[in-house]
């Protein structure tokens, strides 16, 4: 079985993505910002949640949040139309194929409903995980919206 970064490269081979391996961990937004040499806001946090719908259906969702922000769960619930719960590590891996700390915004085994923090649009280039806590890639926020089919919303709070 391919490693996270190798799976990511295979899944995104059709896109102009060039992952970079960092010498230091990029597990957290602060670590990623330090490793890449950008402000923490230019880091994309790929956070998996579960939306629980009125009919008790549970759906994993991906929130792409500006690195300087916290996910606003009330705002996310309003966008998704259900109660929001944090996903555990097993749910994250099942939904995305990647472990926490290396979840990329795309390249998952199956589509994951995605909501993107509008605050990321402040940046020309943002950096996202590329399958591990050491691999990242740059893209414009507009590319992430197009590639993920994500919905822009005000889901981040400072």
TrEMBL record:
Superkingdom of the organism of origin: Bacteria
Xref: SUPFAM superfamilies: YbaK/ProRS associated domain
InterPro entries referenced in this protein's UniProt entry, alphabetically: YbaK/aa-tRNA-synt-asso_dom_sf (IPR036754), YbaK/aa-tRNA-synth-assoc-dom (IPR007214)
Molecular function via GO: aminoacyl-tRNA deacylase activity
Pfam family membership, one: tRNA_edit
Record domain YbaK/aminoacyl-tRNA synthetase-associated: where: 25-144
Protein name as catalogued: Prolyl-tRNA editing enzyme YbaK/EbsC (Cys-tRNA(Pro) deacylase)
Lineage of origin: Bacteria, Bacillati, Actinomycetota, Actinomycetes, Micrococcales
């Amino acid at each position: 079985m391919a490693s996270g970064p190798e799976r990511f490269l295979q899944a995104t081979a059709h896109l102009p993505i060039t992952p970079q391996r960092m010498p230091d961990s990029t597990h957290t937004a602060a670590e990623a910002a330090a490793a890449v040499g950008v402000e923490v806001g230019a880091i994309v946090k790929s956070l998996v949640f579960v939306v629980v719908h009125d009919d008790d259906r549970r759906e994993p969702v991906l929130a792409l949040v500006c690195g300087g922000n916290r996910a606003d769960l009330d705002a996310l619930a309003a966008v998704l139309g259900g109660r929001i719960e944090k996903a555990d590590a097993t749910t994250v891996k099942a939904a995305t194929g990647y472990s926490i700390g290396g979840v990329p915004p795309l390249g998952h085994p199956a589509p994951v409903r995605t909501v993107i923090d509008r605050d990321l649009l402040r940046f020309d280039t943002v950096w996202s995980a590329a399958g591990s806590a050491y691999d990242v890639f740059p893209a414009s926020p507009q590319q992430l919206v197009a590639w993920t089919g994500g919905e822009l919303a005000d889901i981040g709070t400072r």
